[in-house]
Amino acid sequence: MVFNESGKIWFNGELVDWTEANIHVLSHVVHYGSSVFEGIRCYKTPKGSAIFRLKEHVKRLFNSGKIYRMDIDYSVEEFSQAIIDTIKANDLDECYVRPVIFRGYGKLGVHPLENPLEYVIAAWSWGKYLGEEALEKGVDVGISSWRRLAPNTMPNMAKAGSNYMNSQLAKMEAMENGYDEAIMLDYQGTVSEGSGENVFLVYEGALYTPPLSSSILPGITRDSIIKLAESMDIEVRQENIPREMLYIANEVFLTGTAAEVTPIRSIDQIKIGNGEKGEITSKLQEKFFSIISGYQEDKYNWLTYVE
Ligand code: PPE
User: Closest ligand 1 atom, CA of 129?
Assistant: First the structure.
């Protein structure tokens, strides 16, 4: 991951110098984690840079804000344009974009509504999330001793900064144990998601992924993979997944904006399939990459060109 500190950050409606995009230490978000955010990728294509599923990401950001009673001062169109402007201003033909909406400086105490909302969009180069070789060779993951947020504790359908305290616990534990990533179980003990990814598995020819009721973020990459699998006549089942089904699956992979489509080669040191990227994973990965790189027709209208 590389920050370009000579770049620009969109901050409350204006593009400012990277080093000038600062907030007060008594901002509400610093104390209580009051933020919602997105992670979006922009890819280089033969027709110029293209943002992957911009509309869906901005929609999810606004939905996250709605859940937390944030009265957003911008329209979806204005905010989408600001994302495009930020990418242009930074002159990056391929990047990761991080919009954040948070409660700023005004009044401390849990009740948030007297603090102004603040808006940030930053962009930087972010290579392979789980390491250079992850997409080809797969990663080693461990089932976390930390459960994903139970229903009606913290809303998992909101991509809120505070949800990532839970993710951080799982991620730190996984790394300490020598794994690349964690998979968390939900409150029922069935499979939920990774610290920053959704999970899929292939079992007896069908593709399985946990349903929204398993405390997952409604991933946009997850949705893309479901659509691509269906278009390839692969049966997709969104249902509760027992932990042990991961171990005996033929293939398991993670999806996310940062992680893209990353195969898993072992879970809790149990080899998955033959320990290599599986056949269906390869096909889906190939299809996904051919669309984001602009080499295949964008029949779902997933790309927004920057220029
Ligand atoms: N679950 C979680 C918990 C999650 O954070 C992400 C994205 C996903 C699922 C997949 O969602 P989507 O990107 O829409 O397919 N995680 C973002 C943040 C990662 C980070 O380390 O920060 C991301 O991939 O951008």
Answer: 21
Is the model's pLDDT at 194 over the cut of 90? yes
CATH of domain 134-292: 3.20.10.10
Measured in whole angstroms, how far is the alpha carbon of residue 228 from the centre of its chain? Answer: 18
pLDDT digits (tens, 9 = 90+) for 81-140: 999 999 999 999 899 999 999 999 999 999 999 999 999 999 999 988 888 899 999 999
Identical fold, 8-124 and 134-292: no
CA–CA–CA angle 95, 48, 253 (5° rounding): 50
- Asked if 262 contacts 184 with a C-beta cutoff of 8 angstroms, the reply is no
May I ask the CATH architecture of the domain 8-124?
Answer: 2-Layer Sandwich (3.30)
The pLDDT value given to residue 132: 82
C-alpha torsion sign, points 22, 54, 135, 168 = positive
- Evaluate whether 154 touches 207 at the Cβ level (below 8 Å): no
Q: Which residue has the CA at smallest separation from atom 9 of ligand 1?
A: 197
Domain boundaries, the chain: 8-124, 134-292
Q: If phi over 0 gives left and psi between -120 and 50 gives alpha, with beta otherwise, what is residue 138?
A: left
Query: b or e along 179-197 (b: 16 or more beta carbons within 10 Å of the residue's beta carbon)?
Result: bbbbbbbbeeebbbbbbbb
Establish whether residue 198 lines the binding site of ligand 1, counting it when its CB lies within 6 angstroms of any ligand atom: yes
Calculate how far, in angstroms, residue 195's C-alpha sits from the geometric centre of ligand 1: 8
**Average pLDDT of span 59-80:** 98
| Mean pLDDT taken over the chain | 97
